[in-house]
């Protein structure tokens, strides 16, 4: 059996004195990146639970959903384009290291001069990579500010699909936990590993970005691979039965991955992420009868089968009627309104998480679902689905949408000379 080794052991074995990636011109960045690659290659063969960082698409989208989340949105507080690019290079270097189980910087948490701040915060020392993935995106506000001004010379590169989401009936959005210029989704099997990653990116970005809001999540509410069982949300129902799966390659090309033909070359191989923080009024839900709960979802609570079938993955039969002559699945049931046949064939890849953020001071749990869904074009996928749900879904009595975000998630970082967002800034 392979022996697990700690981050500190990996760092020592791979050369704690290796230099940090240069953060000046792109050429210097690439030269230093080759040294970084050699360090990671020497360490990776001994690491367990590491998800490869480089690839055609960013990890953390079709990657089998991990159990823990730390999502963060940032505001860019500099007007200096060069500083922003430098930070993205630094972030990429740190992300490569942390997803491989290394400290955020080559000198680590304890290997640098005692008189200088450490290059890593240290709370993940001794922990394995825990399948950490870091997924990066950019919001519409990075292209133009609230006054319509081109902030970094990027306005002409804003994809048409990255338009502000419309206001949906019932929205109770809080501006301070919505939007954002940049986002990072950290997913891992260990919450401390995910928090460590976000904390170090925020530390590296100090003076260039500030945290707008962040969200911790637990207990994935979707399966993104056929190897995973369907999990449950905090209402006790299986969630995401019909989710897109990593193995459905043709469906992913159709519904998930952006293409150059969509109008933004730099987004080819990327995707669009919609986030929605959905608070559940759990106290009211918990006083609702089982039969009514099942009617609201259109599925039974135990197996997760549609009320017209017996197995979880049975295709719903919306025309089937019960002994009373009424449809077994109501027209306002969640399963029917969200179904692709009701929304022009639209499908999403969901990666949501449960959350409990304490109480609201009135003895009620502040709990619910942090919804995250990836797609090729939100205008044709999330927006029509959410319009249906917002107008007619009887589940709305028990939920409140309190935050919203939309981010363009670029394609993957191809190699050590590449970095997050390079195609946008080239």
TrEMBL record:
Region Disordered, annotated ranges: 300-325
Enzyme Commission designation: 1.11.1.-
Cofactor(s) needed for function: heme b
Catalytic activity annotation: heme b + 2 H(+) = protoporphyrin IX + Fe(2+)
One Pfam family linked to the record: Dyp_perox_N
Chain ranges of the Dyp-type peroxidase N-terminal domain: 58-218
Main location per the UniProt record: other
Keyword Cytoplasm on entry: no
Parts forming coiled coils: none
Record's keyword terms, sorted: Heme, Iron, Lyase, Metal-binding, Oxidoreductase, Peroxidase, Signal
Cofactor binding note from Swiss-Prot or TrEMBL: Binds 1 heme b (iron(II)-protoporphyrin IX) group non-covalently per subunit.
SUPFAM superfamilies linked to this entry: Dimeric alpha+beta barrel
Compartments reported by the entry: Cell envelope
Enzyme class: oxidoreductase
InterPro entries found in the cross-reference section: Dimeric_a/b-barrel, Dyp_perox_C, Dyp_perox_N, Dyp_peroxidase, EfeB/EfeN, TAT_signal
Domain of life of the organism encoding this protein: Bacteria
Residue ranges with Basic and acidic residues bias: 311-324
Signal peptide positions (record): 1-30
TM regions (residue ranges): none
Domain Dyp-type peroxidase C-terminal: 230-413
Record's keyword annotation contains Iron: yes
Sequence similarity: Belongs to the DyP-type peroxidase family.
Function comment: Involved in the recovery of exogenous heme iron. Extracts iron from heme while preserving the protoporphyrin ring intact.
Protein name, UniProt field: Deferrochelatase
Species this chain originates from: Luedemannella flava
Upper classification of the organism: Bacteria, Bacillati, Actinomycetota, Actinomycetes, Micromonosporales
């Amino acid at each position: 059996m392979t022996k697990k080794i700690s981050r500190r052991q990996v760092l020592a074995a791979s050369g704690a004195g290796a230099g940090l990636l240069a953060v000046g011109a792109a050429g210097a960045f690439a030269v230093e990146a080759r040294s970084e690659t050699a360090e990671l290659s020497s360490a990776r063969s001994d690491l367990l639970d590491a998800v490869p960082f480089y690839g055609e698409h960013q990890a953390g989208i079709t990657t089998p959903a991990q159990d823990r989340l730390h999502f963060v949105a940032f505001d860019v507080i500099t007007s200096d384009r060069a500083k922003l690019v430098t930070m993205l290079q630094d972030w990429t270097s740190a992300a490569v290291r942390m997803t491989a189980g290394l400290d955020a910087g080559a000198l680590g948490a304890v290997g640098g001069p005692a008189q200088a701040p450490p290059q890593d915060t240290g709370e993940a020392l001794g922990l394995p990579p825990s399948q950490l993935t870091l997924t990066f995106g950019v919001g519409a506000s990075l292209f133009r500010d609230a006054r319509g001004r081109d902030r970094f010379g990027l306005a002409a590169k804003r994809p048409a699909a990255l338009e502000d989401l419309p206001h949906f009936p019932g929205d109770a959005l809080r501006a301070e936990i919505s939007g954002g210029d940049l986002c990072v989704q950290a997913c891992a099997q260990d919450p401390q590993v995910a928090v460590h990653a976000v904390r170090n990116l925020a530390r590296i970005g100090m003076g260039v970005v500030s945290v707008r809001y962040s969200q911790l999540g637990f207990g994935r509410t979707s399966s993104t691979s056929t190897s995973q069982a369907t999990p449950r949300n905090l209402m006790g129902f299986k969630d995401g039965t019909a989710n897109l799966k990593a193995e459905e390659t043709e469906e992913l090309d159709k519904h998930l991955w952006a293409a150059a033909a969509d109008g933004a070359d730099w987004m080819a191989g990327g995707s669009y992420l919609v986030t929605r923080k959905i608070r559940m009024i759990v106290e009211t839900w918990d006083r609702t009868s089982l039969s009514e709960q099942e009617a609201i979802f259109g599925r039974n609570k135990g197996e997760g089968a549609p009320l017209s079938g017996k197995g979880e993955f049975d295709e719903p039969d919306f025309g089937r009627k019960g002994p009373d002559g009424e449809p077994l699945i109501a027209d306002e049931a969640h399963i029917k309104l969200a179904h692709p046949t009701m929304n022009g064939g639209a499908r999403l890849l969901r990666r949501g998480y449960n959350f409990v953020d304490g109480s609201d001071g009135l003895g009620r749990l502040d709990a619910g679902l942090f919804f995250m869904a990836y797609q090729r074009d939100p205008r044709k996928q999330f927006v029509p689905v959410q319009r249906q749900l917002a107008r007619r879904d009887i589940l709305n009595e028990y939920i409140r949408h309190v935050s919203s975000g939309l981010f363009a998630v670029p394609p993957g970082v191809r190699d050590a000379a590449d970095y997050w967002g390079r195609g946008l800034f080239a």
